[in-house]
Amino acid sequence: MTKPTDSGPSSRRGVFAAGLAGAVAALAAVYVIAGPNGNTANGESCKIALQAAAAAKPFATGEVAAFLPAQKPLGLSEIAFLGPHDELLKMSDFAGKTVLLNLWATWCAPCRKEMPALDKLQADLGSEEFEVVAVNLDRGGPEKPKAFLQEIGVSRLGYYHDSSNRLLQDLRAKARATGLPTTILIGPEGCEIGTMYGPAEWADSDAVNLIRAAMAPKAGS
Asked: What is an example of a GO molecular function annotated in this UniProt entry (predicted)?
């Protein structure tokens, strides 16, 4: 019986090296998909967000019981959308401010329902330290969403938008958006504090108490 030819140790080392290179390439591909912020977010740069998530956790009850405090906060400073004057904005433009980032669309019934509460939350807590940033994802122009907001009396929220849906895609790539509405509480350093999938009564005292608790930890604390 003829035995398979053994190509020797050097050949086996070559096969091993090729396999290792393939594994490294696959890992690099995952890193690129998640983005550098997503892979380093639980490091020193998001330390305050981790403290904020821990502070908010006991307040995830009642209207915000579904709020998920981040265990490994993602860095979100590079996610982008358009501002009220169609200017390109990134979360880094809100540095120093805690942001409640809400993704919504006029075709999303739960989104429509929670807009008045988000508007009231902005009226009650909006300041140099906090802002509700509700980003509209309608595919068409701004006429329909703006008309809807005017119709229901929303006046405190800035009109942020992304008709390309790139923002939603970026957050899906980071496993932080499965549908609408999705709301992410983001700390002053641009790191995720926690995420809510689905609607909430954001003007309720449960939500206000959670946000205030999350805003308590400060740099150097």
From this structure: isomerase activity
Q: Alpha helices of the chain — where are they, by DSSP H?
A: 9-34, 36-40, 47-56, 109-125, 143-151, 166-173, 205-215
Q: Are 215 and 129 in contact (CB under 8 A)?
A: yes
Please tell me whether residue 134 adopts helix, strand or coil conformation: strand
pLDDT of residue 89: 98
The pair of structure tokens assigned to 112 is 């429509």
- Joined tokens for residue 117: 């509460």
Helix (H) or strand (E) run with residue 196 in it: strand 192-197
Low-confidence ranges of the chain (pLDDT < 70): 1-44, 219-221
CATH number for region 41-215: 3.40.30.10
The pLDDT value recorded for residue 34 is 32
| Helix, strand, coil percent content, the chain, rounded in steps of 5 | 45, 15, 40
Q: Which pLDDT score, from 0 to 100, does residue 29 have?
A: 30
pTM value?
0.81
Distance separating alpha carbons of residues 78 and 39, to the nearest angstrom: 13
210 contacts 64 by C-beta, under 8 angstroms: yes
Helix axes 109-125, 205-215, angle to 10 degrees: 60
The pLDDT of residue 218 is 79
